[in-house]
């Protein structure tokens, strides 16, 4: 699955949790990656497109677009609900960790015994029995989850403001 979708799910789970701790958000994001990767998925031919030219530039282009997309989503939600940026950043970073570990293994040839086998198992187990979610489905899911994240973050921050007695505008106090 694309990182922008992993980051969206990690962020939704992070803001849906009562206590907003970046470290917990990071762990939740990391775990959620394995569950999402277990859903059979296609990449719309993007991996083949990168491998076709064996191009670091193409890989950087796709990775850069994903990071830019995640940054824009976090920036937009953070602009509307200040204070959630560390949480969403931690969740997004955590949600990318299995793929970062995968990249680390590929580059260094140093094999991490548990993490990558678990990652591969998640990818492969359900794949033979269910149809794949295409790239378009992943885009739609990403948009829906980032919208949900924005709504949940807003609702909770309004509730928190009321709970903290800061619901009134300063001039009305
Ligand atoms: Zn993965």
What does this structure look like?
This protein has one domain (3-172). The chain has 7 helices and no strands. The chain has helices at 3-16, 22-37, 46-53, 56-80, 85-108, 115-125, 135-163. Helix 1 crosses helix 5. The N and C termini lie far apart (49 Å). The model has no long low-confidence stretch (mean pLDDT 84). Bound molecules: zinc ion. Zinc ion binds next to helix 2 and helix 5. The site of zinc ion has 5 residues, from helix 2 and helix 5.
Layout of strands and helices, then pairs:
Blueprint: H1 3-16, H2 22-37, H3 46-53, H4 56-80, H5 85-108, H6 115-125, H7 135-163
Helix pairs in contact: 1-2, 1-4, 1-5, 1-7, 2-5, 2-6, 3-4, 4-5
Bound molecules: zinc ion.
Biggest beta sheet summary: none
Strand content: under 5%
Distance between the termini: 49 Å
What are the bound molecules?
zinc ion
Number of H- or I-type helical stretches: 7
Helix % is over 70%
Rg value: 18 Å
Which key phrases capture this entry?
single chain, 173 residues, mainly alpha, 7 helices, binds zinc ion
Short overview:
The protein has 173 residues and is mainly alpha-helical. It has one domain.
